[in-house]
């Protein structure tokens, strides 16, 4: 059954099935690069909640999980101020292999800020995994180690990505109709 909220989308970029099969591939890549070692997954919430939940259930490695809360958007579709870490990690990361997970890499400010903060805690390594990469919007020098899909510069929602906290629960990812990108 199609989600009724899908009528708010101008187009669907990735169906639920396409996302799931890419998530499975990313999990394999994580396993290969970690060679059996435990990883400490840090999910940047709220956006990465759904992606993280699916990804870690596919990873056949010991996993510790924590979240970090960063904010930069408010209710806008463009960042309104530099990202802030509102709630930091509780787990110790010193000497650990950290995998930072986010929904989308846009300007790069969020991941750069979060990675710099984690580096202060002397982890053994920090790798980054994002589901989406909007390369055209990058304003700082930052690339993720693992990327699910590259996307054009359009405002997307679904599978964790929101507009004003809505649409996160859509199982697919699509471009939000322009007339709905206003509050
Ligand atoms: P960055 O700091 O500019 O890289 O932005 C990263 C954050 O912005 C992500 O974690 C998302 O929460 C949000 N974001 C960027 N682009 C989109 C989008 O197209 N839809 C929804 N959220 C987005
Ligand atoms: Mg986010």
How does this structure look, described?
The protein has 183 residues and is of the alpha/beta class. It has one domain (17-151): Rossmann fold, CATH 3.40.50. Helix content is 22%, strand content 30%. It has three helices and nine strands. It has helices at residues 16-34, 49-58, 109-119; strands spanning 9-14, 39-45, 63-71, 84-87, 97-105, 125-133, 146-150, 156-157, 173-176. Strands 4-3-2-5-6-7 form a six-stranded mixed β-sheet, sandwiched between helices. The longest helix has 19 residues, at 16-34. The chain is globular, with a radius of gyration of 16 Å. The chain starts with 8 loop residues before the first strand and ends in a 7-residue tail after the last strand. The relative contact order is 0.21. The mean pLDDT is 93. Bound molecules: inosinic acid and magnesium ion (MG). Inosinic acid (IMP) binds next to strand 5, helix 3 and strand 8.
Characterize the overall form.
globular
Would you identify the regions where 5 or more consecutive residues have pLDDT less than 50?
A: none
**Class in CATH?**
Alpha Beta
Which small-molecule species are bound to the chains here? inosinic acid, magnesium ion
Query: In CATH terms, what is the fold-level topology?
Result: Rossmann fold
Oligomeric category? single chain
Strand element count: 9
Count of DSSP H/I helices: 3
Mean pLDDT: 93
Domain count: 1
- Percentage of helical residues? 10-25%
- Helix/strand-derived category reads alpha/beta
> Biggest sheet: strands, sense, closure?
6 strands, mixed
Distance between the termini: 28 Å
- Strand ordering within the main sheet: 4-3-2-5-6-7
Rg: 16 Å
Reading the helices and strands in chain order gives EHEHEEEHEEEE
Instruction: Provide the β-strand percentage band.
Output: 25-35%
**CATH second-level architecture:** 3-Layer(aba) Sandwich
